[in-house]
Amino acid sequence: MPFDLILRGGRLIDPSQKLDARTDVAFAGGKVAMIGNELKADPGTDVRDVSDYIVTPGLIDLHTHVYWGGTSLGIDAEEFCRTSGVTTAVDTGSAGPGNFAGFRKHVIEPSQVRIMAYLHVSHAGIYGFSHRVMVGESEEMRLMNPIDAVKVAEANRDLIVGIKVRVGLHASGTSGIVPLDIALEVAEEVGMPLMAHIDHPPPSYEEVLARLRPGDVLTHAFRPFPNTPTTAQGTVKRVVLEARERGVLFDIGHGKGSFAFKTARAMLANGFYPDTISSDVHTLCIDGPAFDQATTMSKFLCMGMPLSDVVAASTVNAAMALRRPELGSLKPGSAGDATLISVQQGQFDYVDAVGEQMIGDRKIVSEGVVIAGRWWHPKQSPKFKQLAG
Fold first, then answer.
1. Name one Pfam family in it (predicted).
2. How many Cα neighbours within 13 Å face the side chain of 46?
3. Fewer CB atoms < 10 Å away: N or C end of the chain?
4. Mean per-residue pLDDT for 77-95?
């Protein structure tokens, strides 16, 4: 099969293959076809000179809200992904069993960007989230809909990767941890992982972790006090270490109020890296403090996390959390998605969810994306000149 596209001469960083080398990568039929030096182009092959850039597997943002028009917190997935380097946006609970059909038909299916979803156990998902209205959907127990959640998850296994629930003072109020128990029943019934949001207590970080199973994801894992994973002495809480040992996954989910540099510095100093880095992008944080996936990744790079680990947390690790091994990799036969980035040097101002500012010396910049084996970018930038086939 002739190649549809060759990215020529970039620095390829693919943690799924433990690969960091300057080489070519070719795509055909919507998939990765081959990696190698000086790959031969056919007359119709789109060949792009990417020698000044880093090529990674298509970035996966494990925590987004992209039910645009269907929820007040939803942003436009295609617009976001064009500028942030994301090729797979995972929506985490914007829709529940009562409105997932609309999400699928009107947003997911028309999208050129891959959208997958955690289905909320609450009937209408996260429905009351705006500048003026803030209603914790898990506080209203009459909206818990486990029976229909099972039906919808079973009927949409091609897109639904797990079950979502939000617990904490703001999300579940006086219902406490009960919504998590209901969501776990649904996840168990359909054989899917669960993603749990946590905010202010109650319940406590410890109570939530105690219930999570291997493969379940705790998002907002590096959140500020209260409900932080670190002790006052700057060590990692024992329950956190025990949860990781039994296979619980820790996701960043930056968002509007769920990430603190203080927490992250302590966790990284103890060698506790996040399993996945995600932006939790939505209408209330896309203009700051989260901004996008590349900015969230940059914060970890500036705090000392090696670039290969930052890329892994946004590619292969996220794919494993989704149980979709065809994603997050540039192995031949994998989904034909790639992200082009550069790492700029200088002084860059970053801010966390509690207002702390950090001057970082590096910034990851999204330069372009390949989706389903085709060049996909908002403008045909002259810096990616087409070479003769």
1. Amidohydro_1
2. 13
3. N
4. 95
Asked whether residue 12 is domain-assigned, the answer is: yes
65 is in an annotated binding site: yes
HSE-CB at 135 with a 13 A cutoff on CA atoms is 13
Question: Is 254 labelled as part of a ligand binding site?
Answer: no
Task: Write 99-103 long-range contacts (CB < 8 A, 24+).
Answer: 99/70, 99/124, 99/125, 100/125, 100/152, 100/156, 100/160, 102/70, 103/67, 103/70
List the domain range (segments joined by +) for residue 149. 59-322
**Are residue 248 and residue 310 in the same domain, yes or no?**
yes
Q: What single DSSP character describes residue 39?
A: P
Residue 82 has pLDDT above 90, yes or no: no
Same domain, 177 and 313: yes
**Model's pTM, two decimal places?**
0.97
Residue 280 annotated in ligand binding: yes
73 plus 172 within the same structural domain: yes
Domain shared by 82 and 176, yes or no: yes
Tell me the mean pLDDT in the region 360-387: 81
Q: Are residues 97 and 30 in the same domain?
A: no
106 has binding-site annotation: no
pLDDT tens figures, 330-352: 999 999 999 999 999 999 999 99
**Percent share of the chain, pLDDT over 70:** 97
42 and 179 housed in the same domain: no
DSSP for 210-270, written as a single string: HHPPTT-EESSTTPPSSS-SB-TTSPBPHHHHHHHHTT-EEB---TTTS--HHHHHHHHHT
Instruction: Kindly state whether residue 327 falls inside one of the protein's structural domains.
Output: no
Do 147 and 116 belong together in one domain?
Answer: yes
- What pLDDT does 353 receive? 98
Give the pLDDT confidence score for residue 381 in this predicted structure. Answer: 54
**Whether residue 47 is found in the same domain as residue 35:** yes
Mean pLDDT of the chain: 96
Question: For residue 35, what are the CA distances in angstroms to 165, 325, 330, 343?
Answer: 40, 18, 8, 23
Contact 353, 257 (CB under 8 A): yes
Rounded to 5 degrees, φ, ψ at 277 are -105, 125
pLDDT, one tens digit per residue, over 229-277 is 999 999 999 999 999 999 999 999 999 999 999 999 999 999 999 999 9
